[in-house]
Specification:
Radius of gyration: 28 Å
Number of strands: 0
Largest sheet: none
Helix content: over 70%
Shape: globular
Structural class: mainly alpha
Length: about 300
């Protein structure tokens, strides 16, 4: 009996003679794994942040220090007046104004057009619905670079070269498909009974869309808005082709003026780039919660 008891205690899980498991080697279950995941996440974040760190440090160097070889990690001379010079430059303020006008105008136009288009395609089975959605998707396959000559010719015939409207229309056209598709998915996921209940309470179709459907699709709407804004904010090729006057150029095109064949203001270029990133970072910080919800929608039923 004693031998049997001893054998049982040896083989029983968790008994005095049980073989050492993973918890015995690693202490608290999952503790080491969490530490390694945190270290790996911090290292990956540092890799992505490295270009921005270098950009900030270079904005605090003198222009000659930026070109010095071999380069140093920290500035040899800290120059804090570069940001004041950039913000006091009327050219930079004009470029910033142009970027804001184009980005906000394109985003507003995309939202206004994408909401009814996505709502109708998700709720009504009209003839040609599939072809329309396919056509919308096909527009995403064309890069603005491949169409820039045709766009210039078209806007030249319409006398719209060197105008804000040309860039607003172009950016809105190239970002409309993404907004329609993501909002189409959100509208389709909402049960029809929700709209029927609103109709029984006396709400019209427009009131149902504004008071019921849009609040439910807020994550998708925010996602479409931020992606459209960033795409318009970063656009370069079309703006370089269509904008002629220096004071009407957006930031992406205006930055070229800091470094030319005759003068190189590397410190001002990096300082202006840091300032240009700030509005996007603030926008991300404000709507991060809704943005994550929109990107992960549909992953959990």
């Amino acid at each position: 009996m004693t031998a049997t008891t001893a054998e049982t205690s040896t083989t029983r899980p968790g008994g005095p003679g049980a073989p050492a498991g993973p918890a015995a080697y690693h202490g608290k279950p999952g503790g080491a794994r969490r530490v390694w995941l945190a270290v790996a996440g911090a290292a990956l974040a540092l890799v992505f942040l490295a270009p921005y760190i270098v950009m900030v440090l270079d904005s605090l160097r003198t222009s000659s220090d930026v070109k010095t070889t071999p380069p140093s990690l920290l500035p040899r001379v800290w120059q804090w007046s570069t940001y004041a010079q950039v913000l006091g430059d009327e050219r930079f303020l004009n470029w910033l104004k142009t970027s804001l006008i184009i980005s906000l105008g394109s985003t507003a136009l995309v939202v206004v057009v994408a909401i009814p288009a996505a709502y109708m395609t998700s709720r009504h089975r009209f003839p040609g619905r599939g072809a329309f959605l396919f056509l919308v998707l096909v527009t995403q396959m064309f890069a603005p670079t491949s169409l820039v000559v045709g766009l210039y010719r078209q806007f030249f015939e319409l006398n719209m070269v060197n105008t804000y409207a040309a860039l607003i229309l172009t950016n809105a056209a190239f970002n409309l498909a993404f907004a329609i598709w993501i909002l189409h998915g959100f509208f389709s996921s909402i049960p029809v009974e929700v709209e029927e209940a609103a109709a029984l309470d006396g709400a019209s179709r427009l009131q149902t869309l504004r008071r019921v459907m849009l609040p439910l699709t807020l994550p998708g709407l925010v996602t479409a808005t931020i992606f459209t804004f960033i795409a318009a904010w970063n656009e370069y090729v079309v703006a370089l082709t269509l904008m002629i006057d220096d004071d009407k150029k957006p930031l992406t095109v205006g930055f070229r003026s800091y470094v030319t064949g005759y003068e190189q203001h590397w410190d001002q270029l990096f300082a202006a780039s840091v300032i240009a990133v700030v509005p996007v970072v603030i926008l991300f910080a404000v709507i991060e919660k809704h943005l994550v919800g929109g990107l992960t929608a549909g992953s959990v039923k």
